[in-house]
Design goal:
Elements (H helix, E strand, L loop, with lengths): L1 H37 L5 H31 L5 H25 L8 H31 L7 H23 L3 H5 L1 E2 L2 E2 H8 L3 H9 L1
């Protein structure tokens, strides 16, 4: 009876976790919109930059949200490890708008501005690397499920796991000071790597297929 109650409690907690995930992602996207409203552009160039920055943050969050939702459709057993990893993901999602705002919004002049910008961008890269590692963990969990009989589906999520690990490696690689100090086409090399990193999972899967 105790085992049955434990299994029932696990099944009961899954919908609550999924609701919490939806709420946190929705809140993170809303915060990104509020940042645009509270920081009006001073010229057309800033307007385009603000829209481009918001689009990047929006795409990242929606991508993570979509991938997590697909993973949850295939997860059969909820474990403490899965729950704790989900909570870590929610924390990383929750702080993403704050870190991204520090990077994309113009900062006041001061002796520590450059240091703060550099630290914020490093933490942002770490944040996105963590999110990619979480997706890799979920994909790996699916490949190890004993009741997953579809071999092609298992191979697909094995490829997804590897692609997320590759993307996480690029975000971690971008944390090197060289990529913050170097500029290409008026944009820091760290930002160019950030543009590349989310594309890698899709490209990797296409190449593997």
């Amino acid at each position: 009876m105790g085992i049955e109650e434990g299994q029932r409690s696990k099944r009961d907690i899954i919908p609550h976790v999924e609701n919490l995930v939806d709420m946190v992602f929705g809140l993170a996207l809303s915060i990104g919109s509020l940042i645009l409203v509270t920081s009006p552009p001073r010229n057309p160039h800033e307007l385009l930059e603000d829209i481009a920055a918001f689009a990047y943050g929006f795409i990242i969050l929606v991508f993570i949200w979509e991938e997590f939702s697909q993973h949850m459709m295939l997860v059969k057993v909820e474990t403490k490890g899965m729950l704790r990893t989900t909570y870590i993901m929610l924390f990383l999602v929750a702080i993403e708008p704050y870190l991204f705002n520090l990077i994309s919004s113009p900062q006041q002049t001061g002796p520590n501005v450059e240091m703060i910008d550099g630290l914020a961008s490093t933490l942002y890269a770490l944040d996105l690397a963590g999110l990619m590692l979480v997706l890799a963990f979920f994909s790996d969990h699916i490949t190890k499920q004993n009741d997953l009989e579809d071999a092609s589906l298992r191979a697909t999520y094995r490829s997804r796991r590897d692609s997320f690990l590759l993307s996480a490696a690029v975000f971690l690689f971008s944390m090197l000071p060289f990529f913050w100090d170097s500029i290409l086409l008026d944009l820091k090399l760290r930002y160019w790597l950030w543009i590349l990193a989310p594309i890698l999972p899709r490209l990797y899967i296409l190449v593997v297929k």
